[in-house]
Structures are given as structure tokens and as C-alpha cells.
Design brief:
Blueprint lengths: L3 E5 L3 H13 L3 E5 L24 H10 L6 E5 L10 H4 L4 E4 L4 H14 L3 E7 L2 E7 L18 E2 H5 L5 H17 L10 E2 L6 H18 L7 H18 L16 H7 L17 H26 L15 H17 L7 H10 L8
Parallel strand pairs: 1-2, 1-4, 2-3, 4-5, 7-8
Antiparallel strand pairs: 5-6
Helix pairs in contact: 6-11, 7-8, 10-11
Length: about 375
Amino acid sequence: MQSRVLLVGAGGIGCELLKNLVLTGFGEIHIVDLDTIDLSNLNRQFLFRNEHIKKSKALVARETAQKFNPNVKIEAHHDNIKDEKFSEAWFKGFDIVFNALDNLDARRHVNRMCIAADVPLIESGTTGFNGQVQPIRKEKTECYDCVEKEVPKSFPVCTIRSTPSQPIHCIVWAKSYLFTEIFGTGEEPDEMLLKEEASEDPEELSNLRKETLALKKIRASMGSEEFPRLVFEKVFKEDIERLRSAEGMWESRRAPEALDYEVLTQEASGLGNSVAQKDQVVWSVAENFVVFIDSLRRLSNRLEETKAAAGSDTPAAILTFDKDDVDTLDFVAASSNLRSHVFGIEMRSKFDIKRMLINRDSHISAN
């Protein structure tokens, strides 16, 4: 076939699509992707290997896929599809466009460009464990923006950090607050999930900000033997005791119960780090404690190694949450379960927590 094909995105769906397009024998394929390869990509983006980490997804995908069919011309662009050079005229040079994106804004952009250029678009993605494909053609089908997309849910900050009542509240707290404050930027949590509403209690919000500042001070002790204990006692004892002391807050709801580091250390005696591998069973409180402490150490070591490798002239190193990264998922699963226990909420298996995180996505993701 002599058709010219554009593939936007070289992630999970993009790798599979590129392989299929190459083996089908399309004459010329262009790949556009701005991302680089990360360790967490390797389990589902099969064109990449460990030696490709930090390299361009588009360039490595071309190099690997070319071996499947040397007769196909493949061009890779390590660029943002929204760059001005990818104009309407450039889009008109293709017979068909395939979207394999994980970004709502970029998907809308490609949709608009294909409509303007009158080029067929195949939109695809996944949400949770489901997949979807949508053919889009000007004046013949609905376009990507013809159907309003679901608005992301948000939770008031005080619900997440003071009065959770559902497992998802604790999961969001662990991912968007605790993980970010310890290993991330230390800035405000994900605004899509934690929303400060005008109706919130100003005094309570002030107290929560003080908690954040205290956690930042503890972060400075990362790498020390005391660091895991300092974090644990801060978020599962001191913060909880402060909440319990708030007058009137617990008149109509169950008050949270603080956890004791020494007691859990004794209860967890003899439990190995293999607990985290039991992802489809609900861990006991002691098992969650073991996974929390172990994942905290793993992530701390990783961040310290990243800082050492980066050098002093580079921006401060951070870690980002990825549901497919074992260390970050273990931390969020154990943290959220311990918090659930504190507030008398049902704990969940790591498998269920990952599923709930996937379903939190506000739009269909191709990642």
C-alpha cells in the first residue's frame, strides 16, 4: 500500500498500532510523540526495552518497528503535535490519522486539525479495563468534541484530609496529598481532585496548611533511619490526635483512632516484605504497616539516588505517581488502607485500589 499514515502517540496503544500498521504494509508512516521512555512503560509498551529508558518514544518506536518490515518508510518526530509546523496543510498530506493519546487537550487538537484538513481520524483509547475506537470523518460522523466529556470529580479538601467517609477519599489523600508532599513538588495537591471551596472552615484550612509545612520539615530528614517513623507518627498519630481534639467535629460521626508505631512494629514482627505481592487480598493493618514502611524506604532511596545522579546544577529531583510503578502503588495502597482503618472505613486490596485509581481518570486514556 502506498498510503501515508499519521500515528499520534507511541505509548501503550501506539506501540500496538504501529506494529500492526507496519506488518499490514502501509507505505509510509509518521509517528509523533513528545514523551521519553520511563521504566514504568516497559510492562505494556513492548517496542521498548530497559536500555531505551530516557530516550525518545517516537525515535525508538521507529527503530524497533522498522525491523518488522524494512520495506515500510517510517518517520519519527520527537515533537508536540500542537507545534505550528504540524499545520493544516501538513495534515492534508496524510490519507488517515490514528490517535493514540493520553491527553484530552491534544486529542481535541488533532480532532480539529483532521476536521479542517478533511482527513479521516481513528480515535482510540482505554478507560479502566475497557477499550474504545471511534472513526471520525468530516460531515459524516460525530467528531471528538461533538459529545461532551465527563467533568472530573473533585472533593473538598477538608473531606479528603479531615473527614473521609469512603475508600476513594483515602486513596486520593494518599496519592494527591501524602505522596506529593513527600516525594513530589511539595506544592498544592492535584487541583482536579482536591478543591478548596469557599464554604470550607477557614480555621481548619489553616490547620491543614500547618500540617503540610510540618511534613516538609520531616522531608528534610529523608535517608535517615528515623525518617519512616517520623512520617508515620506525623500522619497517623499526631495529625489524627489533632483532628480528634477538634470540638464539635465528631458529634455526629465516628472519631478517628490514631495508630501506634511501637504496637504495629510488634504486630508486624515476622512479616516479610513479600506481603506486597499479595495484591488481590485485603492486607491486615500490620501487613499494611509493613508495606508502608518498606515502600517509604524504597522510594526514599530512589529519590536520593536520583538527586545524587542529577548533581547540584539541576532542579530539585522529584518522583511522580504511576499506577504501574510497583513502589508508588505499594505506597499509595498501604497509606490509603492505614488511613481507612484510622477512620473506620473498609480497607481494599491493592488490585482494587489500582482499579479505583484507573477509574478516577476523567477522560479515556491511551496510556
